């Protein structure tokens, strides 16, 4: 069991037989009443997001989620194929199960496959991924005095703000939690 006061982003809890991942939470103390916890939860199986408020002392059962190393193979329409790198078993997930993670997945990308029991429920990305810049405007010397940025569309369709010296076909490192540019990568 996990107490509402011990909630953290990213953990998986079970409420009324449904698995939810905690996306965000906030402790609220009203004037006279007891403290409450407002949570933003993602239904792992169905993919929708709900908001729920509970009393601060509420307890939830922590869902047992296994992590297995996996590699993203390819997409076929709405289905995405992953291979367990230890057993070479293939697993199929749909677009709803992956959600925003698709913006950071390129072929052969390494991630963690999340399973509950025998069912695959999603993936966990590394903290940063390397993606190729598909399109960005060229930089002209003297555009700014210092530290300017410009939008760049990456190979997965994600658009991030990058420094002016980044060009098309460069490989950049992007933070998967915030979606921000970190640095130019040495290449793949």
Alpha-beta classification: mainly beta
Largest sheet: 6 strands, antiparallel
Total domain modules: 3
Q: Termini separation (Å)? A: 43 Å
Spans with pLDDT under 50 lasting ≥5 residues?
A: none
Count of β-strands? 16
Give me the CATH architecture of the largest domain, please: Roll
Query: In CATH, what is the class of the largest domain?
Result: Mainly Beta
Task: Tell me the fraction of residues in β-strands, as a range.
Answer: over 45%
Structural key phrases:
SH3 type barrels, six-stranded antiparallel β-sheet, OB fold (Dihydrolipoamide Acetyltransferase, E2P), 1 helix, 3 domains, five-stranded antiparallel β-sheet, mainly beta, 188 residues
Short description:
The protein is mainly β. The chain is built from one helix and 16 strands.
Task: Write a structural description.
The protein has 188 residues and is mostly beta strands. It folds into 3 domains: 2-62, SH3 type barrels, CATH 2.30.30; 66-124, Beta Barrel (OB fold (Dihydrolipoamide Acetyltransferase, E2P)); 128-184, OB fold (Dihydrolipoamide Acetyltransferase, E2P) (Beta Barrel). The protein has one helix at 95-98, and strands at 2-3, 12-15, 18-28, 36-43, 49-55, 59-62, 66-76, 79-84, 90-94, 110-116, 119-124, 128-136, 149-154, 159-163, 171-175, 181-184. Strand 4 and strand 5 (49-55) form a beta hairpin. It is flat. The mean pLDDT is 86.
Can you lay out the helices and strands and say which pair or pack?
Blueprint: E1 2-3, E2 12-15, E3 18-28, E4 36-43, E5 49-55, E6 59-62, E7 66-76, E8 79-84, E9 90-94, H1 95-98, E10 110-116, E11 119-124, E12 128-136, E13 149-154, E14 159-163, E15 171-175, E16 181-184
């Amino acid at each position: 069991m996990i107490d509402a006061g011990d909630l953290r982003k990213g953990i998986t809890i079970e409420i009324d037989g449904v698995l939810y991942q905690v996306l965000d939470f906030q402790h609220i103390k009203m004037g006279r009443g007891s403290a409450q916890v407002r949570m933003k939860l993602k239904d792992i199986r169905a993919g929708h997001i709900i908001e729920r408020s509970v009393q601060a002392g509420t307890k939830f059962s922590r869902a047992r989620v296994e992590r297995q190393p996996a590699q993203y193979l390819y997409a076929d329409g709405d289905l995405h194929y992953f291979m367990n790198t230890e057993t070479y078993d293939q697993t199929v997930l749909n677009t709803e199960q992956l959600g925003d993670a698709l913006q950071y997945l390129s072929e052969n990308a390494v991630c963690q496959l999340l399973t509950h029991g025998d069912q695959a429920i999603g993936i966990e990305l590394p903290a940063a991924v390397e993606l190729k810049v598909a399109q960005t405007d060229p930089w002209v010397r003297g555009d700014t005095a210092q530290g300017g940025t410009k939008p760049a569309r990456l190979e997965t369709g994600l658009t991030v703000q990058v420094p002016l010296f980044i060009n098309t076909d460069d490989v950049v490192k992007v933070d998967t939690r915030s979606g921000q540019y970190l640095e130019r990568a040495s290449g793949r």
